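User: General substrate transporter. Structure?
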Amino acid sequence: MAGGVKKPVNIFRLQDLGEPKEVFNWRLWFAVFSFGLLGAARGVDEGLISGAFNSKHFQGTINYDSYSKVEQANIKANVSSMVQLGSVAGALIAFLICDRIGRIWATRQLCVLWVIGIAIFMGSNGNLSAIYAGRFIVGLGVGQTPVVGPVYIAEIAPASVRGLCTCIFTGFVYLGIVLAYFTNYGCQVNLGDTTAARWEVPTSLHVIFAVLIFILSLFQYESPRYLIKQDRHDRAVQVMAGLRNLPVDHDYVIQEINAIATSHREEMEAIAGSGWQGILKEAFTVPTNLYRVCLTICAQILSQWSGAGSITLYAPDLFKILGITGTNRTLLVTAVFGIVKLTAAVVCALFLVDFIGRKRSLLMGITFQAVSMIYVAGFLTAVPELGTEEGYVLSPSQSGLSKGAIAMIYISGFGWALGWNSMQYLLTAELFPLRIRAFCTSLAMAFHFANQYGNARAVPNMLLPSDLGGISPKGTFWSFAIVTILGGIWVFLMVPETAGRGLESMDQLFSLPWYKIGRYGNRNADMADIESPRIEGEKVITGSPVSHDAEKK
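Assistant: Predicted structure:
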């Protein structure tokens, strides 16, 4: 498939896509699974930390009750968001590591950092400095995952199913969240709230996932696109053939390799001999690339400040504000929230992202999110005592509205998983040319974590009453609603559709003036595809999971 959006993808009839039947083989899905599992790194932490922090034993180890209410909000915000702060640095160094040692070894070293950080955190013995340091180091590892995972998957997946494959990464984010939520709930019910095991057992999920991902990486091989970038053309051909389960001289393999090599050669010729300066120059002075950089950075800012990430992080606290009482009940409601988001991610990956396209999926998710935020903000405006007056009890009439607000939080999670959270990784991974892909993805993910850190750090203070320096729960949700609506308008006007387009043909989307790209870029690219036999030769040009047998020969 050469260029723009082609016929919808039915994941149950992949043989109808016009690709050789051998392309969709177990090697592809095993590699996608192995690198998609990196998504669980973020999900586990986001799902665990609030529940673990709220355990009486953990709070006792840091003498939490001895602090004032504002100090408690600051400590909770610092502990919860320190991984995001470390992730900013992790995302920034990810491109250096990816381009220097490759996608595979980058995965292994981030797993080591991840385990070291968790070990420091679990062995802190109530020392806040050690807690902060451990979680920051965790962030150095976790921050690399949304660079390494989606980039590798996008580089190995056929264009016709690249959306599905990349969204598997997002699905594992929510699998991590669900496991974390239910582990918190199970430990609360079965181990009680006053033992170290209450928060140490859930935290050990970090170690389990890090070790599992490290072991799986031993069975994977380098991306053919990275191999070509390293001038290892013969190995790239061999690996691509193995991934596609086709002979090395098959036309399909030759077309893919030639398109990748041609694209890379053109990039290298354009900035010959300029080194890192060339990467920066290509990213920020070439108008089509600069637009892509701005596009991905704006996507990170608008998605994070829409508030959905903070709702995941502080779900138990927010459900308590909305009227859920009792620790066990709050954790159970939170766990169900995780299932809703996982379901949405699966629906998006299997039935929407390659079927109706990225842009429509994103707008659909933003619509769900906006409606939900407006309802919750309106409810908290009608009942301003929630979250500001200790021990406030809802009246019978308010209880019904409270249940509606809780349902809307579920719907907002569904919309977030359907829209922003799936698309922010997918668009970032697939928009950029090969030479600057790792750098630009790292830059976008650095903005992702910087804004996630800012939002996660700010929300506990934002939720405080105005007399304590906050804007109250109602003000917090109104701000989320406004940003979500602005994000929807921006997506409609500025974001082009990328479904079905090979990585090496993305330039066609950005040949128009910047203000026309979002609405007319795809139509213009389709017309260019018809006129350009070179791009037509690209067909399903996207790297693919590496073949073990081919690599070993």
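Confidence is low (pLDDT under 50) at residues 1-8, 533-553. Residues 69-122 form the longest helix (54 residues).
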